[in-house]
Specification:
It is built from five helices and no strands. The protein has 126 residues and is mainly alpha-helical. Helix 3 crosses helix 5 (96-108) and helix 4 crosses helix 5 (96-108).
C-alpha cells in the first residue's frame, strides 16, 4: 500500500511539466545530496554507486515521459552519469534530483552536455 501511494504521488508530481521555464520545487524520495553521490561513486562498482546510477537514469526517464519529450533519445548512459558526477562535484550541497532537473532542461533545450546554459535563468534556482 505504501509503495502504491509513493508511486501514485510520484506520478502526480511528475505529471506537471517539470522542464518548463517555471521553477518547480519538488523533493523526491531517495534523492541524495550531491556529496553522498560523489562519495558513493568513488567505487563505481559498489552497490550504492550502481543504485544511484539506476535511480538517476530512471528518474530522468520519468521526467521525459511526464513531459512527453524524448530528450534521452541518442544520449548514452555513460555521458549522463559523467555529467551528473561533474555536477555533484561542483555542487556538493545540492541534491541529485536538482541535478537531474538541470540536465533534463538542458537536454530538452537541445544543449550539448559539455556546455553550461547560456542564461542563468534557464535552470531552476534551488
Amino acid at each position: 500500500m505504501k509503495k502504491t501511494f509513493v508511486i501514485m504521488l510520484g506520478c502526480l508530481l511528475l505529471s506537471t511539466n517539470c522542464i518548463a521555464d517555471t521553477t518547480v520545487a519538488v523533493r523526491t524520495i531517495e534523492a541524495k545530496p550531491c556529496a553522498i553521490w560523489t562519495r558513493d561513486g568513488e567505487d563505481k562498482f559498489s552497490w550504492p554507486a550502481i543504485a544511484n546510477r539506476n535511480w538517476f537514469v530512471g528518474f530522468l526517464s520519468g521526467i521525459a515521459v511526464a513531459a512527453n519529450n524524448d530528450f534521452l533519445r541518442g544520449v548514452d548512459v555513460v555521458s549522463l552519469v559523467a555529467w551528473m558526477d561533474n555536477y555533484c562535484g561542483e555542487n556538493p550541497l545540492k541534491f541529485a534530483d536538482e541535478g537531474a532537473y538541470v540536465l533534463a532542461r538542458k537536454l530538452a533545450n537541445k544543449q550539448p552536455l559539455d556546455e553550461k546554459p547560456a542564461d542563468k535563468n534557464s535552470v531552476p534556482p534551488y
